[in-house]
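step=encode ok
step=design start
structure_in=
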């Protein structure tokens, strides 16, 4: 086992790409230990070495969000999107942060953008459905939940939402369909 200190990495003659990789690996290790502030510090070093890496910025933003630094996380995600407008994860995560702060119109747009680049991502599509529900667009939300369930029939969060919306939203009320979704939910073993 060879131990490498941060000073060794920074002062070494390792290629820039390798030094960046060491910092991202260290960040992953710290995150695995729930040491998110240390993970942020390592990813900030990696981002400094590779300022055009949108994937490093997406990870950095995630750790900032975990630490409650949502303003920083949003700014970092916007920077990642400026670097690579096709980064679906940056759009999806920015959508989640915007939805959390009540900026639903912008959140919905970022979820749509994310799905342009990764149309099969169930989590993003489900989150889009939630944002649409919160925006009063229950029919559109149902369509998104149904798309999730078409590709992932056992996606419990969307099954729960379909059951709830069809049972309680007057404009979408369909007790028979709600009961079918509820029965599907009940067929899963408890977790």
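sequence_out=
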């Amino acid at each position: 086992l060879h131990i490498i200190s941060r000073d060794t990495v920074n002062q070494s003659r390792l290629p820039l790409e390798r030094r960046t990789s060491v910092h991202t690996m260290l960040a992953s290790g710290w995150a695995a230990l729930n040491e998110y502030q240390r993970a942020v510090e390592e990813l900030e070093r990696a981002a400094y070495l590779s300022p055009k890496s949108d994937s490093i910025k997406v990870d950095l933003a995630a750790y900032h969000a975990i630490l409650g630094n949502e303003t920083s996380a949003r700014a970092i995600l916007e920077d990642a999107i400026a670097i690579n407008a096709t980064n679906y994860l940056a759009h999806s995560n920015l959508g989640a942060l915007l939805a959390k702060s009540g900026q639903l119109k912008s959140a919905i747009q970022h979820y749509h953008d994310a799905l342009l680049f990764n149309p099969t991502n169930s989590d993003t599509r489900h989150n889009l459905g939630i944002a649409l529900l919160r925006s009063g667009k229950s029919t559109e939300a149902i369509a998104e939940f149904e798309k999730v369930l078409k590709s992932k029939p056992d996606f419990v969060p969307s099954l729960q939402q379909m059951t709830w919306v069809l049972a309680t939203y007057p404009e979408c009320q369909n007790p028979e369909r709600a009961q079918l979704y509820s029965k599907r939910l009940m067929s899963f073993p408890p977790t």
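step=design ok
step=annotate ok -> The CA atoms of residues 122 and 152 lie 8 Å apart.
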